[in-house]
């Protein structure tokens, strides 16, 4: 896990497909794409304990989340056709509830 910075309240982790970081309340995910896409090319599934991101049939990541989220409070956007931003609302926010990884068993 990336060190949690109490100064700015953010812990960031760079991964092959982009990066993710967290605050005490939320988990932010950014997936960078090599080629432009439209929302029709994306399959993003966000559930309370699972997530998956598929682009043009290629799975970027999928699996059980490290901790539970509020799926109905979570969202995603496609920016400039090459950047996917996903915001996950933590079910149990707080500085004592930091995630050690995005996905369980990783």
Automatic annotation (TrEMBL):
Please name the Pfam families in this protein's record. CS
- Gene3D superfamilies hit by this protein: 2.60.40.790
An example Gene Ontology molecular-function term:
unfolded protein binding
> Any one Gene Ontology biological process term?
protein folding
User: Which Gene Ontology terms of cellular component type are present?
Assistant: cytoplasm
CS domain: residues covered: 13-103
Q: What is this protein called?
A: CS domain-containing protein
- What organism does the record attribute this protein to? Plectus sambesii
């Amino acid at each position: 896990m990336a060190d949690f910075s109490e100064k700015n309240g953010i812990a960031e982790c760079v991964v092959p497909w982009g990066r993710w970081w967290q605050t005490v309340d939320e988990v932010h995910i950014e997936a960078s794409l090599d080629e432009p896409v439209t929302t029709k090319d994306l399959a993003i599934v966000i559930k309370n304990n699972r997530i998956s991101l598929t682009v043009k049939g290629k799975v970027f990541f999928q699996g059980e989340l490290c901790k539970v989220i509020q799926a109905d409070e979570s969202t995603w956007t496609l920016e400039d056709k090459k950047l996917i931003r996903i915001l996950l609302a933590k079910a149990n926010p707080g500085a004592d509830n930091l995630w050690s990884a995005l996905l369980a068993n990783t």
